[in-house]
Amino acid sequence: MSNTWKTRTTLVHEGSRRSQYGEMAEAIFLTQGFAYPTAESAEARFLKAGEDEFIYARYGNPTTRSFEERIAAIEGTEDAFATASGMAAVNGALVSMLRAGDHVVSARALFGSCLYILEEVLGRYGVEVTFVDGADLAQWRAAVRPDTKAVFFESMSNPTLELVDIRGVAEIAHAVGALVIVDNVFATPIFSRAVDQGADVVVYSTTKHIDGQGRALGGVICGTTEFIRKVAEPYMKHTGGSMSPFTAWIMLNGMATLDLRCRAMADSAARIAAALTTHPGLSKVIYPGLDSHPQHDLAMAQMGSGGTMIAFDVTGGKDAAFRFMNALEIIKISNNLGDAKSIATHPATTTHQRLPQEQKDSLGITPGLIRLSVGLEDAEDLITDLTRALAAV
Fold it and tell me: Which residues pair with 313 in a beta bridge?
């Protein structure tokens, strides 16, 4: 990579590998294994594979490696390991570094599957987890201990768009030698510079904005070469959580337009949030780009944007929220996000349905809450669709 390349150039060119045919598009190396010229070379590669040498697709692949290099370059990390899904990335980043008796501090506002890993999986194997209000630095200070091995949080929480001060939490964690692991999905690689702000490890569900067109599941763990190759990779390659070459090819192609898409989606999200703010059918509109968001200043300092996601509370609870969703024409009902198509989700009954009501209440996941992932449609068409559907409530 050229150190002078800007983001869009890096997103198109970083990590490209060409065969002897000089193809313009990235090649897909659809192979599970690799042939060796001699038995001696096979032995040598298993002892220590060289740069651009591969053994088995579960361990690495030229197409997957291209994707890893490209995402690491954008994220500002030394290396990356591509995984089969976003949850494989979260699980891999945490479980690969933790042992029975270790202590983790986590924000409590998380995606339901992330909570499952922290509450169920880590607890089952003897890791102690303390949950805190992610926006309250005082709670982080009180929870972190000399034996804390890691802190974990979503830089912008799913689904209520609460931000965590990455720099503030990193200072607290690093004071006791704990790693800072950040799930950066909502913030996107375009708007967040978590590593510059103190994160040690950043994970993404590449299913979201990076693919951005609803085609494939994927994830990635980004960090130092030491962490990726000596901690995360051994765990991931032996437990089978690696990304497929075909998926890596999809992600590489998605990254070429990532900056353009995220900025267009965020621009539309800002317009939609402003249009909905005074709507009588909504009791609340949550968007970090609005002055009314309690963490607006932090969002602007940390991301420089309000992002691509909006949340709002439909007056009348679940029944009204369902009538609203069923009246939408352009916006689709689904549980994905970061797609070219706009998507409405009812978290209380889908992505966060397994949480006890008391926990939903504490996280602000009300019966009327809708999470809106803004796509690439015309913003005025989306505003018309939303206001017409609200009128049907």
Answer: 284, 369
Strands 179-183 and 148-154: parallel
pLDDT digits (tens, 9 = 90+) for 128-154: 999 999 999 999 999 999 999 999 999
- The CA angle 148-153-154, to the nearest 5 degrees, is 170
Per-residue HEC secondary structure of the chain comes to CCCCCCHHHHHHHCCCCCCCCCCCCCCCCCCCECCCCCHHHHHHHHHCCCCCCCCECCCCCHHHHHHHHHHHHHHCCCEEEEECCHHHHHHHHHHCCCCCCCEEEEECCCCHHHHHHHHHHHHHCCCEEEEECCCCHHHHHHHCCCCEEEEEEECECCCCCCECCHHHHHHHHHCCCCEEEEECCCCHHHHCCCCCCCCCEEEEECHHHHHCCCCCCCEEEEECHHHHHHHHHHHHHHHCCECCHHHHHHHHHHHCCHHHHHHHHHHHHHHHHHHHCCCCCEEEEECCCCCCCCCHHHHHHHCCCCCCEEEEEECCHHHHHHHHHHHCCCCEECCCCCCCCCEEECHHHCCCCCCCHHHHHHHCCCCCEEEEECCCCCHHHHHHHHHHHHHCC
The separation between the first and the last C-alpha atoms of the chain, rounded to the nearest angstrom, is: 53
pLDDT digits (tens, 9 = 90+) for 187-232: 999 999 999 999 999 999 999 999 999 999 999 999 999 999 999 9
Taking the model in full, what pTM does it have?
0.95
The pLDDT of residue 4: 83
313 closest CA partner among 267, 359, 360, 268: 360
pLDDT in tens, 162-196: 999 999 999 999 999 999 999 999 999 999 999 99
Q: Tokens 């090819």 belong to which residue?
A: 249
| Paired tokens of 129 | 């987890």
Residues near 57 by beta carbon (within 8 Å), at least 6 away in sequence: 31, 32, 33, 64, 242, 244, 245
Confidence of residue 52 (pLDDT cuts 50, 70, 90): confident
